[in-house]
Amino acid sequence: MTALFVLDVPENRPVVVQAGQSPTVTIDRVGPYFKISAPGPIVIDRRATGCRHAVWYSSVAGLIDAAITQWDKDAMRLEPR
Protein backbone atom coordinates (compact mmCIF):
# COMPACT_ATOMS: atom_id res chain seq x y z
CA MET A 1 0.00 0.00 0.00
CA THR A 2 1.42 3.36 -1.06
CA ALA A 3 0.70 6.16 1.44
CA LEU A 4 1.34 9.87 1.72
CA PHE A 5 0.73 12.08 4.75
CA VAL A 6 -0.35 15.71 4.34
CA LEU A 7 -0.85 18.10 7.26
CA ASP A 8 -4.48 19.18 7.63
CA VAL A 9 -4.20 22.91 7.01
CA PRO A 10 -6.36 24.92 4.59
CA GLU A 11 -3.49 25.41 2.14
CA ASN A 12 -3.04 21.64 1.70
CA ARG A 13 -6.69 20.66 1.33
CA PRO A 14 -6.72 21.06 -2.49
CA VAL A 15 -3.95 18.43 -2.69
CA VAL A 16 -6.07 16.01 -0.67
CA VAL A 17 -9.22 16.76 -2.68
CA GLN A 18 -7.44 16.24 -5.99
CA ALA A 19 -5.81 12.99 -4.81
CA GLY A 20 -9.24 11.73 -3.71
CA GLN A 21 -10.56 12.05 -7.28
CA SER A 22 -8.87 8.76 -8.18
CA PRO A 23 -11.12 5.74 -7.58
CA THR A 24 -8.19 3.74 -6.14
CA VAL A 25 -7.24 6.36 -3.52
CA THR A 26 -8.49 6.26 0.06
CA ILE A 27 -8.35 9.30 2.35
CA ASP A 28 -8.19 8.78 6.13
CA ARG A 29 -7.35 10.94 9.14
CA VAL A 30 -4.39 10.15 11.39
CA GLY A 31 -4.04 12.78 14.10
CA PRO A 32 -3.55 16.17 12.43
CA TYR A 33 -2.76 14.56 9.06
CA PHE A 34 -4.60 13.24 6.05
CA LYS A 35 -3.38 9.81 4.99
CA ILE A 36 -3.71 9.40 1.22
CA SER A 37 -3.27 5.75 0.27
CA ALA A 38 -3.69 3.44 -2.70
CA PRO A 39 -2.71 -0.12 -3.62
CA GLY A 40 -0.57 1.20 -6.47
CA PRO A 41 0.78 4.53 -7.70
CA ILE A 42 -0.68 7.85 -6.60
CA VAL A 43 -0.64 10.74 -9.08
CA ILE A 44 -1.71 14.28 -8.18
CA ASP A 45 -1.93 17.01 -10.84
CA ARG A 46 -0.57 20.28 -9.38
CA ARG A 47 -2.45 22.55 -11.76
CA ALA A 48 -5.74 20.88 -10.83
CA THR A 49 -5.05 21.65 -7.16
CA GLY A 50 -4.53 25.34 -7.82
CA CYS A 51 -1.65 25.30 -5.30
CA ARG A 52 1.18 27.74 -5.60
CA HIS A 53 4.65 26.27 -5.86
CA ALA A 54 5.61 27.00 -2.23
CA VAL A 55 2.59 25.09 -0.91
CA TRP A 56 3.03 22.31 -3.46
CA TYR A 57 6.65 21.63 -2.56
CA SER A 58 5.97 21.72 1.19
CA SER A 59 2.83 19.57 1.28
CA VAL A 60 4.41 16.17 1.96
CA ALA A 61 4.71 15.35 5.66
CA GLY A 62 5.66 11.68 5.29
CA LEU A 63 5.50 8.49 3.23
CA ILE A 64 4.82 4.82 3.91
CA ASP A 65 6.04 2.18 1.45
CA ALA A 66 6.35 4.85 -1.24
CA ALA A 67 8.95 6.67 -3.28
CA ILE A 68 8.36 10.01 -4.97
CA THR A 69 9.30 9.46 -8.60
CA GLN A 70 8.00 12.82 -9.88
CA TRP A 71 7.47 16.07 -8.00
CA ASP A 72 7.63 19.00 -10.32
CA LYS A 73 5.50 21.93 -11.47
CA ASP A 74 3.12 19.53 -13.24
CA ALA A 75 2.49 16.61 -10.91
CA MET A 76 3.47 14.47 -7.95
CA ARG A 77 3.81 10.74 -8.57
CA LEU A 78 4.37 8.18 -5.84
CA GLU A 79 5.26 4.59 -6.62
CA PRO A 80 5.08 1.59 -4.29
CA ARG A 81 8.40 0.68 -2.78
Describe this structure in words.
There is one protein chain. This protein is an alpha+beta fold and 81 residues long. The chain has one domain. It is 19% helix and 47% strand. Strands 2-3-1-5 form a four-stranded antiparallel beta sheet, covered by helices on one side. A hairpin with a 2-residue loop joins strand 2 (26-30) and strand 3 (33-38).
Question: What is the count of DSSP helices, taking H or I runs of 4+ residues?
Answer: 3
End-to-end Cα distance, whole Å, is 9 Å
What is the CA-atom radius of gyration, in angstroms? Answer: 11 Å
Helix content: 10-25%
Overall body shape: globular
Beta fraction: over 45%
Uncertain segments: none
Derived from helix and strand composition plus strand pairing, the structural class reads: alpha+beta
On the 0 to 100 scale, the average pLDDT is 97
Major beta-sheet overview: 4 strands, antiparallel
Order of helices and strands: EHEEEHHEEE
Number of domains: 1
Question: What topology, given as strand order, has the largest sheet?
Answer: 2-3-1-5
Count of β-strands? 7
List the SSEs and their pairings.
Layout: E1 2-7, H1 13-19, E2 26-30, E3 33-38, E4 42-45, H2 46-49, H3 53-56, E5 60-64, E6 66-71, E7 75-80
Antiparallel strand pairs: 1-3, 1-5, 2-3, 4-7, 6-7
List key phrases describing it:
81 residues; alpha+beta; three-stranded antiparallel beta sheet; 3 helices
